[in-house]
Design goal:
disordered N terminus; mainly alpha; 8 helices
Length: about 130
C-alpha cells in the first residue's frame, strides 16, 4: 500500500492503522495519541485517524470531544465511533446528547453491547428507569 498523499486528502496506510491498534491494545495510549495526531495532520479527511485520536484522548481522561465529533462526521456508518462519542458525552453530563448519539449507534449496529450499557446508564441518570431497563 502506498503512503497517503502529502495533500492530506488521502487515507492512512493499513500499516499505520495496524500500528495504532497495536498501541491501543498494548495500553500505550500516549504514544497512540502522538501517532494519531500526526496522522490527522497528514490525512485530515481520514475518519479512522480521528477516531483513534479521540479514543486515545478519552482513555487517558483527556478531552477527545472534537476528535470524536470529527470521526462521526467522517464515518457516518461507524457505530463504534458514535458509541465512543456517546460515552464521552455521558461523562460530561450531557445526557440528552449522549442518549441521541447512543441511539444512533444502536440504529447502525444493534449488537453493540457497550452502547446498550451506556444508553441504559444515561437513561437511568435521566430518571427514566423503565426505558433504562429496556
Amino acid at each position: 500500500m502506498t503512503p497517503a498523499p502529502a495533500s492530506g486528502t488521502g487515507r492512512l496506510p493499513r500499516s499505520e492503522l495496524v500500528h495504532l491498534a497495536a498501541l491501543f491494545n498494548a495500553g500505550r495510549h500516549a504514544e497512540m495519541q502522538a501517532a494519531a495526531e500526526k496522522a490527522t495532520r497528514r490525512c485530515p479527511g481520514d475518519g479512522i485517524a480521528w477516531k483513534a485520536l479521540g479514543t486515545a484522548l478519552q482513555v487517558q481522561g483527556k478531552d477527545g470531544l472534537e476528535a470524536l465529533r470529527r470521526a462521526v462526521q467522517l464515518l457516518p456508518a461507524d457505530a463504534e465511533a458514535r458509541a465512543n462519542l456517546g460515552s464521552l458525552l455521558m461523562g460530561r453530563g450531557e445526557l440528552d446528547a449522549a442518549v441521541s448519539v447512543l441511539q444512533a449507534a444502536l440504529a447502525i449496529d444493534p449488537r453493540l453491547a457497550p452502547a446498550h450499557c451506556n444508553l441504559g446508564d444515561a437513561l437511568a441518570q435521566q430518571g427514566d428507569a423503565v426505558a433504562a431497563e429496556a
